[in-house]
Sequence to fold (137 residues):
Amino acid sequence: MSSKKIHIETLVNAPIQQVWDAYNNPDDIKQWNQASPDWHCPSSENDLRVGGKFKNKMAAKDGSFEFDFEGTYTEVTPLNSISYVMADERTADLKFTEQGDNTLISVDFDAENMNPEEMQREGWQAILDSFKNHVEK
Fold:
């Protein structure tokens, strides 16, 4: 298991309550949780509490591939931070920070060993950018 952390972030032009709600609401998650237009998130379950679980189905729109991205929350501080452990034991830490009328989201996650770090960074960043676009539309 790699102990290398990868960092991504984005500044969302929206108040923190709106950002928090859109990030954690399964109906919203299904709309933004993809890294490219040829993927989608057909289902999302989210029990946002310590010990609660989330499961988001990630699927190629052409039906060629799908997988569940899932984990268990280890820390939830409303309007501030979320930490979770993924099914493969990697961890992720998210921070939500008010910056005037905007909200900065920063994410630090454990790199996995199957794909290059830059590919992982780009994939996670693309999903975060998709979230930003969803909230700002």
Remarks:
- The chain has one domain: 5-136.
- The CA atoms of residues 10 and 88 lie 26 Å apart.
- The longest strand covers residues 66-77.
- The two ends are 38 Å apart (CA to CA).
